[in-house]
Specification:
single chain, 396 residues, seven-stranded mixed β-sheet
Length: 396
């Protein structure tokens, strides 16, 4: 079976979540992703818990289908190896703060002279320019600056931290899209280019539903009072008798009508767009009805009804969800050493070249010898480089 990106080689210097998520997507569809780690602890995600063998479950998830080589880029010999790898690479992805690669002597200006077709993607918190560019940060900081966190949560309470990393994963998607666009352009022009991905910029671009409205009206929304943040009775979460929850997303009149019919409150149909104060009362009335039955009982009543009602699944619910089962959204890899390892399947369904999880995440330095041999290093040279700590390879 052919894969969409099987002719593309990517050198991945990223760590933790945003960059590895981006290159995971590319690797799932056939790109040869070579994870370049330092000769010390390497990617910090390896050390997280819980573990699958030596490395964390999270590391295995976002680093499947990749190879690993360990280099000390602070040494001349380590840099020389990296530059040789760049000669035959299509893409370099890194997530250091601006200036780090320059100080190492392997920045884009250096690399494009070696390989003019190279696409170089730099993922940073705030971008390569601007007063914040060298500041440290994490997802919570980026969504704070982007104005996302301010509007998460209910009215009268402090902002609610989301359960998933919005800016981190969003920038991973932006990076993947940028790389694919640059590859497409290179097919026309023959030239590579520099991709500047900012987690803040990416997060800001997700404000499509209410930032343009603010620009147009100058009306500042309040936390918990936006149409789609849970205060409207037709778009919120209700608790069921068994302490579980239902989500209701009846955002169009036709869905709201069906919802009101099922809960036997057709008098509420006309109250879909009442002011916020009355929305609170409508929501409370509906909650008093929903609490009378279990989640399963309500799902049976709504079965086949177009009212946009769904169970609020916990992680333990996911494996039994018939839609996710049908979509084959979980894949189990049978590893001779680690046994069965279950991972999230590639999410983009291509009819001719679908993504596949072929291998688990590499062990630290697992492919160092293979890759150095490929670019002309002898066994003796590899032994010397290993003894000097310039490279690290997996033994056993």
């Amino acid at each position: 079976m052919s894969l969409a990106l099987e002719s593309i080689r990517i050198l991945d210097l990223t760590r933790l979540l945003p960059g590895p998520f981006s290159t995971m997507l590319l690797a799932d569809y056939g790109a040869e992703v070579i994870k370049i780690e330092d000769t010390g602890p390497g990617d910090y995600a390896r050390a997280l818990y819980p573990k699958i063998g030596e490395d964390s479950a999270i590391f295995h998830s976002v680093n499947r289908n990749k190879k690993s080589i360990c280099l000390d880029l602070k040494t001349e010999q380590g840099k020389e190896i990296f530059l040789k790898l760049v000669e035959k690479a299509d893409v370099v992805v890194e997530s250091f703060r601006p200036g780090v690669m320059d100080r190492l002597g392997v920045d884009y200006e250096v690399l494009k002279k070696i390989n003019p077709r190279l696409i170089y993607c730099a993922i940073t918190g705030y971008g390569q320019t601007g007063p914040y560019s060298n500041m440290p940060g994490h997802d919570i900081n980026y969504i704070s600056y982007a104005g996302i966190l301010e509007y998460m949560g209910v009215s009268g309470s402090k902002p609610m931290v989301p359960s998933v990393q919005i800016a981190d994963l969003g920038s991973g998607l932006m990076s993947t899209i940028g790389i694919l666009m640059a590859l497409l352009e290179r097919g026309r022009s023959g030239k590579g280019q520099f991709i500047d991905v900012s987690m803040l910029d990416g997060a800001l671009s997700w404000l499509q539903l209410f930032l343009p409205a603010y620009f147009a009206s100058s009306k500042k929304p309040e936390r918990g009072s936006l149409d789609l943040t849970g205060r409207k009775a037709y778009y919120t979460v209700y608790e069921t008798k068994d302490g579980l929850y239902l989500s209701v997303g009846a955002g169009e009149p036709k869905f709201w009508v069906e919802f009101c019919k099922i809960i036997e409150r057709e008098d509420l149909i006309k109250k879909m767009h009442v002011p916020m104060e009355e929305q609170d009362r409508v929501r409370e009335e509906i909650q008093s009805i929903i609490i009378e039955k279990s989640r399963q009982e309500w799902m049976e009543k709504f079965n086949g009804i177009e009212a946009c009602v769904a169970p609020v699944n916990s992680l333990e619910d996911l494996e039994n969800d018939p839609q996710l089962i049908d979509r084959k959204m979980f894949q189990t890899i049978d590893d001779t050493e680690l046994g069965e390892v279950k991972l999230i399947s590639p999410p983009i369904k291509l009819s001719e070249t679908p993504g596949v999880i072929r291998t688990l995440a590499p062990k630290s330095g697992e492919h160092t010898i293979e890759l150095l041999s490929e670019i002309g290093y002898s066994n003796q040279q590899i032994e010397v480089l290993t003894s000097q700590g310039i490279i690290k390879n997996r033994v056993g």
